UniProtKB/TrEMBL annotation:
<feature type="active site">
    <location>
        <position position="280"/>
    </location>
</feature>
<dbReference type="InterPro" id="IPR016039">
    <property type="entry name" value="Thiolase-like"/>
</dbReference>
<dbReference type="InterPro" id="IPR013747">
    <property type="entry name" value="ACP_syn_III_C"/>
</dbReference>
<feature type="active site">
    <location>
        <position position="250"/>
    </location>
</feature>
<keyword id="KW-0276">Fatty acid metabolism</keyword>
<keyword id="KW-0012">Acyltransferase</keyword>
<protein>
    <recommendedName>
        <fullName>Beta-ketoacyl-[acyl-carrier-protein] synthase III</fullName>
        <ecNumber>2.3.1.180</ecNumber>
    </recommendedName>
</protein>
<keyword id="KW-0511">Multifunctional enzyme</keyword>
<feature type="region of interest" description="ACP-binding">
    <location>
        <begin position="251"/>
        <end position="255"/>
    </location>
</feature>
<dbReference type="GO" id="GO:0033818">
    <property type="term" value="F:beta-ketoacyl-acyl-carrier-protein synthase III activity"/>
</dbReference>
<feature type="active site">
    <location>
        <position position="112"/>
    </location>
</feature>
<dbReference type="InterPro" id="IPR004655">
    <property type="entry name" value="FabH"/>
</dbReference>
<dbReference type="InterPro" id="IPR013751">
    <property type="entry name" value="ACP_syn_III_N"/>
</dbReference>
<keyword id="KW-0963">Cytoplasm</keyword>
<comment type="similarity">
    <text>Belongs to the thiolase-like superfamily. FabH family.</text>
</comment>
<keyword id="KW-0444">Lipid biosynthesis</keyword>
<keyword id="KW-0808">Transferase</keyword>
Length: 323
């Protein structure tokens, strides 16, 4: 067992709420359709902030909650599919803004599995010579949404969340994980495609920033591959589904969450959700949920929790933590 502690969690969502009712004044949709298919009633959308602004707020909260200095950080990982820019990375912007002058920083791109993949990398780093770091998932997906396209615009929201992790002598940490990538299925969920019109190109390819997804395929993928990854992670940890106190799944769709709860014979109360108020915030969703549950006291030290991401790539990642 690795000895790794989640010392603090934090979240930051923009204050502008956009309800399904408001969206229905902009496009041909309605609360009934959106809520019955996804469990989403509203989402938060930025008015002025970029991805780094949300991530910086999360980082500052994490340092304050853990009562440690920025200089004590060894690394900062920001998982995002909607960075401010490719260079500098969003993580580098955070590192500079908070004055973490001993830390190296980089972005990680794994869409909605981003926080789980980031925690995996952090766990590896902490098993070597590093002692403390931040893992943040931050997204301004509203940059990537075609606000004319009702099939995607109703699904996503903006937000940031993360954790401060460090090594510990306590017998806790990441018990097991199963991360899988299905690159052959990547075309089912794309966003942020670059074009190329270099003077040597035989063929000019056009840029397309917007989300396009084959919703049915992604739905089927999630309900097939999430249980498979979760089963594998539980088996590696030599635990049964009953042993887990809470399952924190990526908040894409309430139907996906309840299908998976049933598959494992678990009560839905062990699969908390918040997509009703936040929409799908991709790499931020699991961290936002974790911080809400820590704040309410439902999730606390001594428990076993599962963190499960799935989405673009296509990717899936399941981890079992003793916290
Ligand atoms: N309002 C009203 N009607 C709509 C809307 C809308 N917002 N969007 C689509 N429709 C219509 C469609 O045009 C279609 O009409 P038609 O039958 O006349 O052609 C009808 O509703 C049904 O559309 P479907 O796409 O078949 O609807 P479905 O039941 O599959 O639900 C959804 C779509 C919610 C996207 C679902 O497929 C889903 O949740 N998939 C999973 C997506 C997901 O989890 N993504 C996670 C990864 S995200 C990431 O990694 C960033």
């Amino acid at each position: 067992m690795e000895h790794l502690k989640i010392v603090a969690s934090a979240r930051q969502v923009p204050s502008r709420q956009v309800t399904n009712a408001e969206l229905s004044t902009m496009m041909d949709t309605n609360d009934d359709w959106i809520f019955s298919r996804t469990g989403i009633h509203q989402r938060q959308v930025v008015t002025t902030e970029n991805t780094s602004d949300l991530a910086i707020q999360v980082a500052e909260q994490l340092l304050a909650k853990a009562q440690v200095s920025a200089e004590s950080l060894d690394f900062i990982i920001v998982s995002t599919m909607s960075p401010d820019s490719l260079s500098p990375s969003t993580a580098a912007i955070v590192q500079g803004a908070i004055g973490a002058n001993q830390a190296f920083a980089f972005d990680l791109s794994a869409a909605c599995s981003g926080l789980v993949y980031g925690m995996s990398v952090a766990s590896s780093l902490l098993s070597t010579r590093y002692r403390r770091g931040l893992v943040i998932g931050a997204e301004v997906l509203s940059k990537l949404v075609d606000w004319q396209d009702r099939t995607t615009a109703v699904l996503f929201g903006d937000g940031g969340a993360g954790v401060l992790v460090e090594t510990t002598e306590e017998p806790i940490g990441l018990l097991s994980e199963e991360l899988r990538t299905f690159g052959d299925k990547g075309d089912n969920l794309v966003a942020g495609r670059f074009g190329n019109a270099n003077p040597f190109s035989g063929e000019i390819t056009l840029a397309d920033p917007y989300f396009h997804q084959n919703g049915r395929e992604v739905y089927n993928f999630a309900t097939r591959e999430v249980p498979a990854a979760l089963e594998a992670a539980l088996a590696k940890a030599q635990l049964s589904a009953d042993d887990v106190d809470y399952y924190l799944l990526h908040q894409a769709n309430a139907r996906i969450v309840s299908t998976i709860a049933k598959r494992f014979g678990q009560p839905e109360t062990k699969f908390p959700t918040n997509m009703a108020s936040n929409g799908n915030t991709s790499a931020a969703s699991i961290g936002i949920l974790l911080d809400e549950l820590v704040e309410s006291g439902q999730v606390h030290a001594g428990q076993i929790i599962a963190l499960v991401g799935f989405g673009g790539g296509l990717t899936v990642g399941a981890q079992i933590w003793k916290i």
